[in-house]
From TrEMBL:
This is Magnetosome protein Mad28-2. Residues 1-30 are annotated as: Disordered. InterPro entries: ATPase_NBD, Volactin. It comes from the Bacteria. It comes from Candidatus Magnetominusculus xianensis. Pfam families: Volactin.
Amino acid sequence: MSDKNEVAAASQKPVVQSERPKEAEGFGGPIGLDIGTTNIVSARARGASIQITKQLNAFFTVPASKITGMTLLKNDVLYFSQNGSYYIIGNAADTFANTFNTDTRRPVESGLLSAREDEALNVIQSIIKTLVPPPKSQGELVCYSIPGDPIDTKISVLHHDTILKRTLQDMGYTAIAINEGFAVIMSELAEESYTGIGISMGGGMCNVCFSYLSVPVFSYSIQRGGDYVDTMVGAAVGESATRIKLIKEKELNLLKEPRNKIETSLSIYYEDLLENLILSIQRVITTSESVPRLSKPISVVLSGGTAMPAGVREKFEKLLKANRLPLQFSSVRMAEDPLNTTAKGALQLAIAEEK
Ligand SMILES: Nc1ncnc2c1ncn2[C@@H]1O[C@H](COP(=O)(O)OP(=O)(O)OP(=O)(O)O)[C@@H](O)[C@H]1O
Ligand SMILES: [Mg+2]
């Protein structure tokens, strides 16, 4: 079987219900797709509700052999074959990495397609195909998230954006990009006429967008997020970033006094991340010529996995108040469903475009 066929065989197999419900396969209509450093999430309208499916944006390689190939297929493990290895992709990669006591590899690093991993493109395309079935009719809409250009480097998101667009177009879709911060605004600020600041704090980045009546005024990213916290804390306390990530996701509460050196270090690097984020907002607002003078205070919405620990919202609000900005804020609030906000916002835009 050729490499291409094996991808197809693996990705056409029905996957475990929670990863790719069977209904997703033949169900047409616009799709919202969040292609993040840690997770890829798809959102689709289904009657009055939104159907979410997701995979980890990760892979793990094992030596190729007939018996392994058959066993993986039999167990609904998604993989493709390349250069004598099987590339196990998505959620299953994490299970393999944990079993072998090592780390998964990632096709996206700090928010952008990795230049380090030769296989990045094949991996990301294969994962996308497990979440986005072929369109029912040619040209159906998919709206996919892209980061804002990183503020502190000369890196552009153009390469990342173009590759993703081509991937989706080659599948038969009409593909529209949405800035990740703007997707947060689309998902959470409809009642405020899409006016306010949307922030997505993810694994590799924090994305910020300020929009006035649905028109983005500025958007950008900083290439720091949950991975930065895990790596820095791990190095400070002599633990692996993977272990720090597990502790952070399970136990971190920034409203409580740290109980040990890991929690102390987590609170230090969270504070550092939030300060950096607020300073970047201050810098952009004070140097931008196009920030509108608004008569009413605006809302800030925080989303993404890194915004989830208790106390992040409160700390962000405190720092925002301490930094005098030429804008007035009415509230800092959490998105309803932080891990799925970007995909939901992308879906809202796809639905609006289709109309
Ligand atoms: N409950 C939690 N508490 C703290 N951190 C969490 C929690 N759940 C997830 N995270 C962290 O959130 C990050 C993943 O969030 P998310 O899925 O929003 O990122 P992403 O969209 O894949 O990445 P990016 O937008 O940066 O490209 C990881 O760093 C993960 O450790
Ligand atoms: Mg994200």
